[in-house]
Design a protein that fits this description.
Blueprint lengths: L14 H11 L7 H14 L5 E3 L2 H11 L7 E5 L4 H9 L3 E5 L10 H7 L4 E7 L8 H10 L3 E5 L7 E2 L2 E2 L6 E5 L12 E5 L2 H10 L23 H12 L1 H19 L4 E3 L6 E2 L5 E5 L5 H10 L5 E2 L17 H9 E4 L7 H19 L1
Parallel strand pairs: 2-3, 2-4, 4-5, 5-8
Antiparallel strand pairs: 1-9, 6-7, 6-11, 8-9, 10-12, 12-14, 13-14
This protein binds pyridoxal-5'-phosphate.
Length: about 375
């Protein structure tokens, strides 16, 4: 039986046509027509005025934080239950991540916990839309306004995700996306930065390209980076944006079929809660009893089904450890499994997966 991977990119549409155009015209580096075409198409898709492309989702976050002037002495509130890049990029600016707990039902950061963590040093809140579900953007936008805090949205897992019909990434002062190979749309490696203010956007554009002066050649007046995306990546990205709606529809249908087939088992699926569009970057389950999580994953691996465990909380990791107890984050992370979630998953494959999960619980519970 063939292995069912947890993810694989769907490389259809105009992808070969566009990439070949880069090769035949010679525009393979970070200049070329696909860069601005992809940026424009992306901004239009999410409903943002502008977007600037970068090399990956991690440097997107670092660039966004740096463009806001976040650094030494600042505190940035972030959920501990997130991918490590959210935390590492805060540390890379010299700022201090302040970990807060998440909500059991949505898996997103708890707005009340953010409020409780605010100190005179708090500069920003980083909202991470995990696994395709949005954070509560009413509560978070309000508290940022009340306390005059910057809002950073890590939307790496939130392409196609909406809160009250509005795409994530358009609520914050800055927002970032990732186009890694297993993200909802991919460019191989790649990322995007959005900014509410035109000044911050300009700063991002300068910082990502060595801080070169707009008026004087090879004159650099700020400490900056090379975080640019290539034209080939952008060519792939443009082709992906063109088929994004069908990729999202397919992923939603997969999530629906998992929900139906797994009903009644001692687990829950990661369902949308509230006025949201869940994009199901990853279709996830949480087992009721955490001791069953690893044996279930082992059983699925034996059935040639690849899965992923939920992220361990950042506050427990050696290089960014903090002496706090975050009960929801700690519990969620030991119970969660990401199931195969790629758009090309067939209904036969999803039946095989659900059959294997069901047989695990039958064997164990009788
Ligand atoms: C994937 C991801 C990133 C980083 O993106 P890369 O493109 O892999 O650097 C950041 N934050 C979250 C939540 C992610 O899932």
């Amino acid at each position: 039986m063939a292995i069912i991977p947890v993810y694989e990119p769907y490389l259809g549409g105009n992808i070969s046509l566009y990439v070949n155009e880069c090769l035949t015209t010679g525009w393979i580096s970070s200049r070329g027509a696909f860069i601005s075409r992809f940026e424009k198409a992306f901004a239009e898709y999410v409903g943002a005025p502008q977007a600037t492309s970068v090399a990956n989702g991690t440097v997107a976050l670092h660039l966004a934080l740096d463009a806001l002037g976040i650094g030494i002495g600042d505190e940035v509130i972030v959920p501990s239950f997130t991918y490590i890049a959210s935390v590492n990029t805060i540390l890379q600016t010299g700022a201090t991540p302040i970990y807060v707990d998440s909500l059991e039902d949505t898996l997103q950061v708890d707005p009340q916990a953010i409020r409780n963590a605010i100190t005179p040093r708090t500069r920003a809140v980083m909202a991470v839309h995990l696994y395709g579900h949005p954070c509560d953007m009413d509560a978070i936008s309000t508290l940022c306004r009340d306390h005059d805090l910057l809002l950073v949205e890590d939307c790496a897992e939130g392409f196609g995700t909406r809160w009250k019909g509005q795409h994530v990434g358009t609520f914050g002062d800055v927002a970032t996306f990732s186009f890694f190979g297993n993200k909802t749309i991919t460019t191989g490696e790649g990322g995007m930065v959005l900014a509410r203010s035109a000044d911050v956007m300009d700063k991002c554009r300068r910082l990502k390209s060595q801080g070169v002066s707009p008026t004087r050649e090879y004159w650099h007046d700020i400490l900056a980076y090379n975080y640019r995306m290539t034209n080939i990546q952008a060519a792939i990205g443009l082709a992906q944006i063109e088929i994004a709606d069908s990729l999202l529809a397919r992923k939603k249908a997969i999530a629906q079929s998992y929900k139906q087939a797994l009903a009644g088992l001692p687990l829950r699926t990661h369902d949308p809660v509230g006025p949201v569009d869940h994009s199901f970057w990853m279709c996830s389950i949480l087992v009721d009893d955490h001791v069953q999580r690893d044996p279930l994953r082992k059983h699925l691996a034996e059935c040639q089904i690849e899965t992923r465990p939920f992220f361990p909380p950042a506050h427990l990791m050696p290089h960014c450890r903090a002496n706090v107890t975050l009960p929801a984050a700690e519990s969620i992370s030991t119970r969660g499994i990401n199931l195969p979630s790629y758009p090309g998953l067939t209904s036969e494959q999803s039946e095989r997966i659900c059959g294997s999960i069901t047989s695990f619980f039958r064997q164990n519970l009788i």
